[in-house]
Amino acid sequence: MNSQNLLNIAKKFGAPVYVYDAEKITSQFNRLTKAFKGVGSLRLNYATKALSNISILRLMNNLGSGLDTVSVQEVKLGLMAGFKPESIIYTPNGVSLEEIEEASALGVQINIDNLSILEQFGSKHPDVPVCIRINPHVMAGGNSNISVGHIDSKFGISIHQIPHLLRIVDLTQMNINGIHMHTGSDILDIDVFLYASEILFETAKNFKNLEFIDFGSGFKVPYKAGDIETNVEELGKKLTKRFNEFCNEYGRELTLAFEPGKFLVSEAGHFLAKVNVVKQTTSTVFASVDSGFNHLIRPMLYGSSHEISNISNPNGKERYYSVVGYICETDTFGSNRRINEISEGDILSFKNAGAYCFTMASNYNSRYRPAEVLWYKGKAHLIRERETFDDILRNQVDAKELFEPPKKVVAK
């Protein structure tokens, strides 16, 4: 998908708009599969929260992916997209027992990350197979908001609580069929990940009926030229060798599972926005676009860097711009970026907009959420319509009768 394709999409569907390249998603899926080709049984469960459009889920199902979900709503989306219940794993955090039971009734794999719910669920449903999410206290993540393996994390059951965990399993006689961990996103050091894996292998020895070991995900993708990324080929080679050794020790072949989200869809995404105003101040040239952190919150929330290019003027002279949005507070996409000369009306492309962009979008400032387009086999397909004012009012209850002026009393 080239710049002219993107410009044509912006012209046809309007801006702002999210565009996803199905070919890039497919190549990333195949790359990860190839990296672990030495494993007898591999399951890639796409992390729905990264990009949950039902057409994207259908594409993943078509590729042979499983599904990682964190809410019962994502479970239902997955079932609507054609996933079989047994190919969906449900890994919530801090939800009620009732929601877990609702997901369980749909037939999906349950993954529990705290002792309280584990004991309650095991006592009521001892025959339902359950995976346990372990916190190995090994931290990954490029930002504190996405580092979930530290000792004070709300995610997972601490490895220091294993004796308590085993007591619950023994008393309830529940069926533990999987062990899971997730250290956080943006994994850079493969050796740190392998160290956490050893903790998971050691924990797995306590359970005799395992079917799979789930290593989570968090593979880092490049956000600009020359950026560091997770070497999945090296990880595949080292972890495959160790996993196969463990299966021999365990006495039977297990399934190795991952939950890639950003790795599969981030680089496939482009967010297109039109420049409303070019504003020169005493020290800065601002390019203000018809969008804001209501559509792409990651730079403001995580400090993430998205490469920005002017696809309307790809050969223009480079100048320095601070690209900002229209939200009425600090709303910066990038400061002092070298971008081909920008004029009002130009279309800017924000790369790596496939993961955690639309799914974290909002109607802040009562703005509409944009359309989504899938580029598939050389054609652009609308997969979500742009919102309208009716969508802003949807589900609101106008209690106007409460505020009608009082009736005048006429003195007689």
From TrEMBL:
Chain sites annotated for binding substrate: 298, 302, 329, 356
A GO BP entry is:
lysine biosynthetic process via diaminopimelate
Tell me which InterPro entries the record gives: Ala_racemase/Decarboxylase_C (IPR009006), DAP_deCOOHase_LysA (IPR002986), De-COase2_C (IPR022643), De-COase2_N (IPR022644), De-COase2_pyr-phos_BS (IPR022653), Orn/DAP/Arg_de-COase (IPR000183), PLP-binding_barrel (IPR029066)
Cite the entry's keywords alphabetically: Amino-acid biosynthesis, Decarboxylase, Lyase, Lysine biosynthesis, Pyridoxal phosphate
Query: GO MF annotations for this entry?
Result: diaminopimelate decarboxylase activity; pyridoxal phosphate binding
Q: Which residues form the Orn/DAP/Arg decarboxylase 2 C-terminal domain?
A: 18-354
The similarity annotation says: Belongs to the Orn/Lys/Arg decarboxylase class-II family. LysA subfamily.
Q: List the protein's name.
A: Diaminopimelate decarboxylase
Organism annotation: Flagellimonas eckloniae
Question: Gene name on record?
Answer: lysA
